[in-house]
Amino acid sequence: MTVTAGTHLPDVLDTRTTLHGVGELRAALSTPPDSVVESLTRTDGDIMLLGAGGKIGPDLAVMARRALDAAGSDARIIAVARGLDGQEGEYLKEAGVEVLRADLMDDGDLAALPEAPRIVYLAGRKFGTAGAEHGTWALNTFLPGQVMKRFPDARIVAFSTGNVYPLTPVTGGGADEDTPPGPVGEYAQSCLGRERVIEHYSRTQGTPAAIVRLNYAVEMRYGVLLELARSVLRGTPVDLAMGSVNVIWQGDVNAMTLRLLEHCATPPLVLNMAGPETASVRWLTEQLARRLDRTASFTGAEEPTALLSNAARCAALFGYPTLGLHRLLDETARWALSGGAEHGKDTHFQERGGRF
């Protein structure tokens, strides 16, 4: 399905402007649309982000702070992680976000956290699962239950993944929220376990929750598009076995996540948060190669199935993403060609056997 970009872009993403440097990128990722400001006024209280030290947490926390500031609210934004030191910690503190160091797996640390009526749950493990499956299951399945018991009266938006779905036919439009789960590999299985545990406590203690099945968030420092651009620049053939993907701008993910706080329910609302297009990996690579003035090369052939999510329900709730696919390709190519900063982690989106 082909869609056009939305019209309500923050000023830093005006179509006449390109992103130069991490500062401008982070401003784009953390500038709240009016819809976020309005949504956060319809629920009350402090917002706490658990597991905020990853790729998503800091800019999401700053967007929340800026939205509450715009709404004239003095509610606290609290970012909780084992470590948020150095530049990330300073970035958060300068924006007015409170930073708490805590190990969520430690009973004492979890008990000592302040009460918060609005929680975004980001903790979990994907990479490093192979050979340490026990730790992945503990973090992804045991810990969510502890958090649900600790905050029974909060609204909780919890991140999951599209990996809970089976591979589906490329021509089928992707798995929607009614598709029976079919997780491949222990990482994906543990993520389905996380969802089931959250659902259990939502039903038994009445905790309103929402579960985000994300697939795949991109920004200039991370994601499927950056990986493809790097392959083009290095002259490395792109494996086509996983021949199609969904990609969605991380700034849109941040905005939709905060808006979900008012949609938490019992049992939990489950929502695919994904790009609306079934995007061909071959086409994406060729588009990047054109922008990079390089030649794309490939290996293998497209399989008839891929890990795909249907985002129709998300679009019905929040509208289409504000940043369209062509703009994402433009910005990613510019970033890669200029040698822009990277997070240094790959998505492993081409993994078909569930080994992470």
Can you walk through the features of this model?
The protein is an alpha/beta fold. The protein is globular and about 55 Å long. It has helices at residues 21-30, 34-40, 57-70, 86-94, 107-112, 133-150, 186-205, 224-234, 250-259, 281-292, 312-318, 325-337; strands at residues 47-50, 77-81, 98-101, 118-121, 155-161, 168-169, 209-215, 217-218, 238-239, 244-245, 248-249, 269-274, 279-280, 298-299, 305-306. The strands form 5 sheets. It has a 7-stranded parallel beta sheet with strand order 3-2-1-4-5-7-12, sandwiched between helices. Strands 6-15 form a two-stranded antiparallel ribbon. 38% of the residues lie in helices and 15% in strands.
Identify the notable features of this structure and list them briefly.
single chain, 356 residues, alpha/beta, disordered N terminus
Present the secondary structure layout:
Layout: H1 21-30, H2 34-40, E1 47-50, H3 57-70, E2 77-81, H4 86-94, E3 98-101, H5 107-112, E4 118-121, H6 133-150, E5 155-161, E6 168-169, H7 186-205, E7 209-215, E8 217-218, H8 224-234, E9 238-239, E10 244-245, E11 248-249, H9 250-259, E12 269-274, E13 279-280, H10 281-292, E14 298-299, E15 305-306, H11 312-318, H12 325-337
Parallel strand pairs: 1-2, 1-4, 2-3, 4-5, 5-7, 7-12, 8-11, 9-14
Antiparallel strand pairs: 6-15, 10-13
Helix pairs in contact: 1-3, 2-3, 2-9, 3-9, 6-7, 8-10, 8-12, 10-12
